[in-house]
């Protein structure tokens, strides 16, 4: 059994990670749900961090992105914001302190990279198969942005749907 080491995670992720206590096969659904919450928290933390970095150089872009995130209906909106902020021209507004994180998100990683997104490829393929989804095939996980997109696709496929009338009703 793999134990999640949370001592090196940023505090918001560590708080979510503390809830994960895998105890065997009988809790696999609970573990999957908590891991998907951890992925959701990580995706949102990445988006919020990038948005904060853009604020100083481009307040109007930062405001527009924050506006869209506050009104986001799904994780797809968060992934879209990450894609915008990690691509030019908006990525050009990130200060130098963010360049390493930007490279981490967008750099193509080789299959030999044990910490790269392709290391999750086998698990993603197994999940896709068990959910009755098409295999990734030629669409492999070359960047962490690709991995984020796949995690969102799987999360959307497994998340219980909310009836339309319960979503964001105006007061």
Give a verbal description of the structure.
By secondary structure, the protein is mainly α. It is built from seven helices and no strands. The protein folds into two domains: 8-98, no CATH class; 107-157. Helices cover 53% and strands 0% of the residues. Helix 1 (11-17) runs antiparallel to helix 2 (28-54), helix 2 (28-54) runs antiparallel to helix 3 and helix 2 (28-54) packs across helix 7 (144-158).
Q: Given the structure, what is the number of helices?
A: 7
Number of folding domains?
A: 2
Radius of gyration: 17 Å
Overall, the morphology is: globular
Which secondary-structure class do the elements indicate?
mainly alpha
Name a few traits of the molecule:
171 residues, mainly alpha, disordered C terminus
List the helices and strands and how they pair.
Blueprint: H1 11-17, H2 28-54, H3 59-70, H4 75-85, H5 99-106, H6 121-130, H7 144-158
């Amino acid at each position: 059994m793999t134990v999640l080491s949370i001592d090196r995670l940023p505090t918001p992720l560590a708080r979510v990670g503390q809830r994960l206590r895998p105890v065997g096969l009988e809790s696999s659904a609970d573990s999957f749900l908590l891991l998907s919450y951890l992925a959701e928290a990580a995706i949102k933390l990445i988006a919020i961090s990038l948005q904060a970095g853009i604020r100083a150089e481009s307040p109007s872009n930062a405001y527009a992105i924050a506006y869209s995130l506050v009104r986001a209906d799904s994780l797809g909106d968060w992934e879209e914001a990450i894609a915008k902020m990690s691509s030019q021209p908006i990525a050009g507004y990130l200060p130098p302190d963010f360049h390493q994180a930007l490279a981490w998100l967008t750099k193509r990683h080789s299959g030999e990279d044990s910490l790269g997104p392709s290391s999750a490829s086998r698990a993603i393929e197994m999940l896709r198969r068990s959910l009755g989804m098409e295999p990734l095939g030629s669409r492999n996980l070359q960047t962490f942005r690709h991995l984020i997109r796949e995690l969102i696709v799987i999360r959307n496929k497994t998340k219980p749907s909310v009836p339309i009338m319960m979503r964001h009703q105006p007061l």
